[in-house]
Specification:
By secondary structure, the protein is mostly beta strands. It is about 0% helix and about 50% strand. It comes from Algoriphagus yeomjeoni.
Length: about 290
């Protein structure tokens, strides 16, 4: 295993999540789900700006122009960075107030994939939805508990998905044109001692970088063999998600959480809730915009 150096950005999130690299703005975004905060960090200047919303904010993606796409509670909205105007676009599960969005990505065809969970973490209560230009959510997977990490292969043939408590990364056949998926195989089984797989991203070699909640790091897995290739050790237990960014798409931004840590643990791991920047030697892909 390599030794990785990191720099940290103080954000002290209760539940940091949803990292996103905006290539046009040369900024990283991430969220604090429970506090409804959106963070914008400009990589060159090192300046961080925050926006607050009276909702749980789980997902930040890219829309047209200076618009972001946000997953707030169980609704999707566009947010104009210049005017700070919030415009509701669509939503799911309107009659289940205990549910919220968790993770979301945009597929290679410009469609949003976004999952739900119960805030009571009820087994099998969550779902995964696909949202296209018509803004009509279509349920793609049900019977999920914590709908989480997603990634597509460069050839657009495979979709990887994590339902966290299963400790599995599943591979699905992916149809680019229709957006349909069909289960293929379990690509990776996470040993119990390594924590739970949370958010993830894919590099240009097709390897998966997976944040391990309770596993104190980001692990690099080979989804073809199921083999663990590498680990970025971090000084916090609960690592939640990661994405590639920077000018060369070789910098990993990693989010973490303070939740489920008691006072003594927070003193032991004071950087919990901060985000970390790591040069990996690998490169990711430029994120896709939602095509409205």
């Amino acid at each position: 295993m390599k030794t990785y150096n990191y720099t940290s950005i103080s954000s002290q999130c209760f539940l940091g999540e949803g990292p996103y690299w905006h290539s046009d703005l040369q900024c990283f975004f991430w969220v604090d789900i429970e506090k409804g905060k959106l963070f914008q960090h400009h990589l060159d200047s090192g300046q961080t700006r925050t926006y607050s919303f009276p909702h749980r904010l789980a997902v930040v993606l890219e829309g047209k122009g200076d618009q972001l796409i946000l997953g707030l509670d169980r609704k999707i909205a566009s947010f104009d960075l210049n005017t700070q105007e919030l415009k509701w676009l669509t939503g799911v599960e309107p009659d289940i107030p205990l549910h919220r969005f968790n993770d979301g990505k945009v597929d290679p065809k410009g469609r949003i994939w976004i999952g739900t969970l119960s805030t009571l973490f009820t087994e099998g209560a969550g779902s995964l939805y696909r949202v296209g230009q018509d803004l009509h959510p279509k349920k793609m997977l049900g019977d999920l508990t914590i709908s989480n990490g997603m990634a597509w292969t460069a050839d657009n043939q495979t979709f990887y998905f994590i339902d966290t408590p299963t400790r599995q990364i599943k591979a699905y056949h992916f149809d680019l044109e229709t957006g349909d998926i069909r289960f293929n195989r379990i690509a990776v089984e996470i040993p119990e001692e390594l924590g739970f797989p949370d958010g993830m991203c894919i590099d240009q070699e097709g390897m998966l970088w997976v944040a391990h909640y309770g596993g104190s790091g980001v692990y690099r897995w080979n989804p073809n063999s199921g083999e663990l290739l590498d680990k970025i050790d971090l000084p916090v237990p609960h690592v939640t998600s990661c994405c590639f960014g920077g000018k060369n798409l070789d910098t990993l931004l990693i989010t973490t959480a303070q939740e489920n840590l008691n006072e003594a643990q927070l003193k032991e791991y004071p950087l919990s809730g901060d985000v970390f920047l790591v040069k990996t030697g690998s490169k990711g892909f430029r994120a896709i915009r939602f095509l409205q």
